[in-house]
User: What shape does this take?
Amino acid sequence: MQHPSRRTQPGLLVLVLILGLMLAACQPAAPAAQTADNGEAASAPASKEPVVLKFLKYSDPVEAIAFAQIEENFRQIDGGKWSHVSIAYDAVDFENLFPKIETSVAAGVELDLIQADGPDMKHYAWNQVLLPLDEYFTAEEKAAFAPQSIEEGSYKGVFYGPPFMQSCSLMWYNQEMTDAAGIQPPRELADSWTMEEALNAWQKTTVDNDGDGSPDVWGVRWGQGTWASDYEQGILRRSAGEKGSPSYQGVGPDGLTFQGYFDTPEAIESMQFYQDMHQVWKVTPVEPIPNIFQSKKAAFVVYTDNLIGELKNQYPDGNFQLGLTGIPYFKTQLCHTGSWHYGISTNTKHFDEALAFVKYASSAEGSRIYYEALHQLPARLDMLNELPEYDSYPQSLIKQGFEQFGIPRIQTPGYTEYQQVFAEIAQNVAAGADVTQQMTDGAKQIEQLVAKYKGWNE
Assistant: This one.
């Protein structure tokens, strides 16, 4: 999937232009970036045709702030070598991002950069959606990232793309609301609530001021946005098992077996609890409310620490005292790790430019710009160990959770298929569907969808 470099060498301007026109029609998808003898990037020709990199990504207004700055700085590095490059963003919502990535590549749509969720990297590598980047990142460059990020961004030991950031969702709360209810959430992870203890707090903070039967303030929102996903809803199911048990593992060692792992009695019981949160105790709405916590319509929310950036950038006049406590659990406390990764599409016609952008965006400088906008757990160890905010509450809890009980989401090339089925199941369960049937039928359906990957890790 890799191709040799075919960049032209400096010379007479007329010759350069002629050769450039001849090579434009047959430029390979992934040429190696040219370097000078001293290992630094070679100087670009004095004038270059504009290049627009098409970047298919998740729609996030706060993230857009970060990328505007990253792009601006990228065009100035190396003496303006990449000043001819600009980015065209195709930003779509979370639910539609994953299918659009695959259909775009399969249809041959011109596409250069992809924002890929960490556990999907193996899926995209198997399906030849992404180009391997292993040879373009030195061992030292890869060692700068958390080991979880390298695992999540690799397939069969080959690195396919660096991370934007890392993650560990804990439970945030509006302290004004918890104070009003006489609740003091624990600030030490060792004292984190069990799910039953958390339920008591959610019930006390669910408030119906006008008595119309519909809460004006809900106790909790379990997860970001208005969607259901494995990233946060899957924690419920896995925490229902003892560490190392089938429920905790979530999938068999082959990455393809879900019956007996996804649909264990403990997993079913945990999803029954999730349904009762909506249908019986009514501490969370069946129909999700956008920005429910940020707009002060929920007392608690399970979320990553980019919540800090969202409140700062989107709700500057509506800030409130923000608290953080450990994520509730049934038997085993855990948070899912992994977040977005940069990937280069197999359809790219501008590999050198795409690679340069990816390397800058994931560098110490690019990562800091991204962090300053979102304030989410860095994937770069140098940043994580140097940022002072991760040494004090509340963000110190995020770092501790990541290090103490953060685990990658299930590792399978069929993660996209699994995620789509589980998201539908979670929505159906919240709406009142039979939990046992949803889980047992779901396990069978997922196995049928991922059977095509048999032998993927051999």
